[in-house]
Amino acid sequence: MSQSRETTELSPRAQHLLRTLVQCYISDGRPVGSRSLVKASGLSVSSATVRNVMAELEELGYVCSPHTSAGRQPTDKGYRFFVDTLLSARSWDTDQFDALELRLEAGGRTDELLGSASHLLSGLTRYAGVVTLPRQDLRALRHVEFLPLSGNRVLAIVVLNESDVENRVIETDRPYQESELRTLSNYLNAQFSGWDVQRVRQSLVEAMREDRERMDQLMQTAFEMGEKVFNDEETGEDCVVAGETNLMALSELSDLDKLRELFRAFNEKRDMLHLLDRCLSAEGVQIFIGREAGYRVFDGCSLVTARYAMEGQPVGVLGVIGPTRMAYQRVIPIVDMTAQLLGAALNQTR
């Protein structure tokens, strides 16, 4: 991630003091005063000089003060500067990599490895760990076709992925003509072709629950038919989350309303999956700090992610969700190395 033009125009002293302030705040969670910052920085400067630098950084939006007499603490922009510095100068510990490898061994099923990775991330960081399913394990709807059978029965021919075909017989409330069924299947194909079947099922259920009054007759009938077709799908998950309760112990996220919103996001997974999907096409470690995520529910949180690959192709994303006052120096290498190890373990299970 590149630093902004504003950041590169900071003097070396200002950059050093900002890095030191972020490290101090991450360590103890208290605003940092000028005297403490002089001592922690190791610079031969006066407290007055540091106060002037802090005033400049506050004006530029890197730090803020919770109240007049307090010291400074980093803003999201200040954390971003700190994180970009870490990423541009990263060098991971090979001993730590070897230790992680012992805890994520190949040999199990894919779901077991994904669960192990999410619990590993959560256990090592004490935040929430999340791993998306490999894309190739998802079942994409390519085409659905309906054919009339005797009585109130319809044959649904469902084509998944590239060539997997499944036949399902469903009971309807009345007989349907072939032309009617063709119209219904055309409508569903136009709406959902290419979607994972779990997402199709979820969308149909939500639409039937929330939007029935706004549907025209064709849409309502098509959705009712589609809901019957995909009703027997196993309610599999698009991602595995572990350690959500770790967040309850963090003072930064102790607000009950905030916690309710976060746990709702963990349960519904929609916003989280959209965010993780954005990381699948990006190389290296990706970090969203506070409002950078683009979803209000993650304000005050940071998400550190990395994609994992199978046979050289990125197929999923894993990461850690915690407060913006996160131990980035520990979390970033853990996430990066776990992604590498998960991909290697999955390749060995094939």
UniProtKB/TrEMBL annotation:
Pfam families hit by this protein: HrcA, WHD_HrcA
Domain Winged helix-turn-helix transcription repressor HrcA DNA-binding: 9-81
GO biological process: negative regulation of DNA-templated transcription
GO molecular function, a single term: DNA binding
Gene3D superfamilies given in the database record: 3.30.450.40, Heat-inducible transcription repressor hrca homolog, domain 3 (3.30.390.60), Winged helix-like DNA-binding domain superfamily/Winged helix DNA-binding domain (1.10.10.10)
Transcription regulation found in the keyword field: yes
Domain Heat-inducible transcription repressor HrcA C-terminal: 111-332
Keywords, ordered alphabetically: Repressor, Stress response, Transcription, Transcription regulation
Task performed by this protein: Negative regulator of class I heat shock genes (grpE-dnaK-dnaJ and groELS operons). Prevents heat-shock induction of these operons.
Family, per entry: Belongs to the HrcA family.
Name of the protein described by the UniProt record: Heat-inducible transcription repressor HrcA
